[in-house]
Write a structure and sequence with these properties.
The structure is a homodimer.
Chain A lengths: L3 E3 H11 L4 E4 L6 H4 L8 E2 L5 H15 L2 E6 L2 H16 L3 E7 L2 H6 L14 H7 L4 E4 L6 H15 L3 E6 L6 E3 L16 H17 L3 E5 L10 H12 L3 E3 L14 E4 L9 H6 L3 E5 L20 E4 L4 E3 L6 E3 L4 H11 L17 H7 L11 H7 L9 E4 L3 H5 L10 E3 L9 H18 L7 E6 H7 L2 H7 L4 E7 L4 H6 L17 H4 L11 E6 L2 H8 L2 H4 L4 E7 L7 H14 L14 H5 L1
């Protein structure tokens, strides 16, 4: 290797080293020369249609691969992407946002440059970015740039949240010692203090042994706390045999074929039996919580702190202040590992009788046969379509009726579900799907995985970011999209304005998308297929069709649903949203002692 | 009228009073109830496909109507739009950004709400917005909200820049005294100090009388300094007879049929004769300047301050410090009016011989006839297509080859040209066109105008914001779009990466857009027409076709150009961009004494 390399090469090789293989983004005149270094670093340039979509795609990619990257241009490009970066922050997706900026001399001169506000201030956009990223690097010299890059990449990986890198045009080819690349970016975490950890492990195990009515709730951040944590969570569920649910955000982390898996705990929006049982538990093990209103069904699934052991990334809360404490500097991975190592399974209480919390698999099998001529309804669609899923699939459910309904999916082992559970930016999921499909292709090529990329998308959401279908096709990604066409923003109709015209969307001819976006015609290596299902019979024939099942090429299945149909759980949930919008702080639920204020802490 | 009205009604009626008729935006759960008040206030709800496009549309609308408004939802919606708001700030478009936010009690509780980052901080996005707006109102009580709304609307109008309004869900129906509506929002400006103004007017007039080689440069902000200023600028050009040019940003403000109008002064990118002549002037009257690199052709058209009188909104700079001064608190409107009132036309010097700066109309007529089979070239396309324009048209040229080429348009009287000259966010112009077409329809309905809305759009740009074609069609707007299909980001190819794959875009089937986006088929009241021109003969037949000319319905003309073709002026210009990107602060130009640093001040 040469003694010196250019800074842009250093940056992209560092990204390669930490697992990035595809770079999302849009070219712009302050980043063009940097893009010359993408392919030589072994990376694929995706080339999105716009920056917001590129940001969404990098986020989706990151949720599968553990890190993603997006390149935009100063000002216009980066601001277009900032909503995606905000989402990555809120939902803990590790995205590196690289911004091509004007040269350092231009910036120092305060010149009135294009893509600036014209006031000579080149820091405004970085100041905005700092609010939605966990680390920032404004590269200003060849001397400090490598360590700055390493610092933010490390934070991106450790905190699983976005970081921001400004690369001025004049530093792209600044010379950096090539030898710096041979020291890997360390993401090791200091081991937990043995003595301290031992004490907490013993405390937690004693509570497990003593539990009479235990419950495990696995939430979505569990999968963000580093490689291996989700596997340990699964092991905890398996060896204890304790009844386990996930939150909406956590769905897909736990193997849903385990006999003690009982679906999503939906609080006031769920089945009557579930919440009273959960609220009378004497031990709740809670992993990786995201306490947002939607993820907790209006704060109704947050368990009583007194009986709860909450595992965060670097700390554990055991009970409430009067009978426990919040123990910092204990990383979840070491902690769970030690609990599992020390747990004497024979002393773990067996529930007898085991509570009847429902088995999603049995519920799916118990569904009545459909009327082949019948209209497809939201209330059973998500269960029924689950027969289509296979191991290795990555399933994405867009915010709106798909994400609410998708809580009823019955997932095979090793299936990843991606939804949004606090940021809820509609349009995200189509962009994310492009990134996920790329990540999936890389994983398959590495031999580590098989499976498809399957998106459930609403019509209103699709319209937000539709052009990324072009990016999927141009990059020849294998994607299956179910477009749930119900003639507008149905989730919003249920919140407010059932008949209001502002909840309508234009009646697109969705199945013509691939053709409009330039899909190759009759390309045997990359097939385009489009289908429409307006009845259960049509849908079931499609789901049974081996060509639909193969997941190859670009497939779109338009599913026609009625405008006002929604999953039952959504109808219940929106009542609490309406109350909060009118100024009522919390939905009053009988027996619910959790207030919104406490929930926010 | 009732004694009290709801706050949302107050807000929308105030918008109506200051000239808004159409509201852009996207529904979201924190703004839904507010949207119920749009139609009753006499306003049209547009319903865009996404928030960035809605922001662009509101900006385009504002550039025609003098004010525009966009409604988004907290967090996700507003951040998606923030790039558009930044552009409105940089280019002085008066846009009111209304954000539906969580209820005040929720915000005060710090709850972990959807569309937030989950940290209980509800001020983050407002802090970002404050960086790209000139006034902000966080409505928190019925008592103060009306005056807060009035304050920001006044600033929006006076400063011609965006403002930001947060409307929490619980304040939507807060009761406001209806009588407040009967006091109009004052946009009057204090009259200039008579004695002070008189002195400056006399000084300026004396310099006009004494000039041997005078020049007028009209820039784009001239049209942002309030109603009537552009007319006064035209009158100044007409009565003095001084040679006049516009900047790229100012193009369209001055009647191009005046004999002393000489097109865009393009500095180093222009004709050889122009810059030496301009730089040897002894008086330059400069109106409403935007000193950005692209608008000044790499700072080469900024005249010597010593000989320049620069008219800003509220001040005038006469000469440089040693022989003049910067006089504040003099509004351009009063100042220009008094200059025109007092000017003795007989004492205004006549240039003899009049300099040969070229006449765009004569240059157009002198063009050789095209080869009907010949390829359409960028270098003469923009001149030739000018024969298509008519009085009252609003012409939009997207950033990239269209905006550079569009400097060669030869415009009829009363034709507005919209381009971007500092923000340069590609994709802007398609969104803006939707807003402009709505504004144009309103002006036509008011009987104040006739004319079409005509967009020149690049293929790469179109891909950014394409779904707003759906919004045009759904709102039955009359729009004519020339899609310049040259197979990628050609302007970027010229800057860097002529053959680089990152400058490619997917080969869409552009003419299928309207069909994909759900256009009605065979609707006699709203016709869809699509055409392709690959040769001069095909283009000229289309331009002469009365059905193409009528401007009714949705028309798309795809113009095929070669990938590497660009206007000559662009090829020259990008050399300076390349230099600056490599760290050279200023393009060295012989005889150019203006530095980038001075230009930025």
């Amino acid at each position: 290797m040469a003694e010196h390399i250019d800074l842009a090469e250093y940056l992209f090789r560092r990204l390669y080293q930490v697992g990035v293989r595809g770079i999302h983004g849009v070219p712009g005149d302050y980043n063009l020369t940097a893009l010359d270094y993408v392919a030589p670093a072994g990376l694929e340039w995706v080339g999105n249609c716009n920056e917001l979509n590129a940001g969404y795609a990098a986020d989706g990619y990151a949720r599968v691969k553990g890190i993603g990257a997006v390149v935009t241009a100063f000002g216009v490009g980066e601001l277009s992407a900032i909503n995606a970066i905000g989402g990555a922050y809120a939902e803990m997706a590790p995205v590196v946002h690289i911004v091509g900026t004007p040269s350092t001399s231009i910036q120092n001169s305060g010149a009135c440059m294009h893509h600036s506000l014209g006031d000579g201030n080149f820091r405004i956009f970085a100041e905005m970015a700092a609010k939605v990223t966990v680390a920032q690097a404004s590269l200003t010299s060849a001397h400090t740039a490598p360590s700055e890059i390493d610092r933010v990449l490390r934070q991106c990986l450790l905190q699983s949240r976005p970081v921001y890198v400004e690369l001025p045009t004049d530093l792209v080819s600044a010379k950096i010692p090539a030898s710096l690349l041979s020291t890997p970016i360390s993401t090791s975490i200091p081991p937990n203090d043995e003595g301290f950890e031992d004490a907490e492990v013993d405390l937690i195990i004693s509570k497990i042994y003593a539990a009479k009515q235990p419950f495990i709730i696995v939430d979505g951040f569990t999968s963000r706390y580093g490689p291996g944590v989700a596997a340990l969570a699964n092991e905890l569920v398996r060896v204890t045999g304790f009844p386990c649910s996930t939150t909406p955000f956590g769905k897909g982390i736990i193997d849903e074929t385990l006999p003690n898996f009982h679906g999503v705990y939906a609080g006031i929006a769920g089945k009557q039996v579930y919440m009273p049982w959960a609220q009378s538990c004497d031990l709740v093990l809670r992993l990786g919580p995201l306490n947002s209103d939607v993820n907790t069904f209006g704060f109704t699934t947050i368990p009583d702190p007194k009986v709860t052991i909450t595992f965060h990334r670097d700390s554990v809360e055991v009970g409430s202040a009067d009978n426990g404490g919040h123990y910092k500097n204990l990383h979840i991975k070491g902690l769970l590992q030690k609990i599992l190592d020390r747990l004497d399974v024979s002393r773990v209480p067996k529930l007898d009788p085991y509570p009847d919390l429902g088995c999603p698999r049995r519920q799916l099998r118990a569904l009545e046969a459909t009327d082949p001529e019948g209209t497809i309804d939201q209330n059973t669609f998500y269960q029924r379509v689950s027969t289509f899923f296979r191991e290795g699939d990555i399933v994405l459910s867009e915010t709106g009726t798909p994400s609410v309904g998708g809580r009823d999916f019955v997932l095979p082992k090793h299936t990843q579900l991606i939804n949004s559970s606090i940021w809820l930016s509609i349009g995200y999921m189509l962009g994310a799907t492009q990134g996920v499909a790329l990540a999936q292709r890389e994983l398959i090529a590495d031999g580590g995985r098989k499976g498809r990329t399957i998106l459930f998308e609403g019509d209103g959401s699709l319209q937000m970011t539709v052009q990324e279908i072009s990016t999927m096709i141009r990059n020849r990604l294998d994607v299956t999209i179910f477009v749930l066409n119900n003639d507008g923003y149905t989730i919003e109709r249920w919140i407010h304005g059932m008949e209001a015209s502002y909840n309508d969307v234009a009646p697109w001819r969705y199945l013509k998308a691939a053709d409009f976006f330039g899909a190759p015609q009759d390309d045997k290596e990359y097939k385009i297929s489009t289908h429409r299902a307006a009845t259960w019979g049509e849908l079931e024939r499609l789901l049974a069709d081996s060509e639909v099942q193969d997941g190859k090429g670009f497939k779109m299945i338009e599913v026609i649903m009625t405008k006002e149909d929604a999953p039952e759980s959504l109808k219940k949930l929106v009542q609490t949203v309406q109350k909060r919008n009118s100024g009522v702080l919390d939905a009053k639920v009988e027996g619910d002692k959790i207030t919104a204020k406490a929930a926010a802490q």
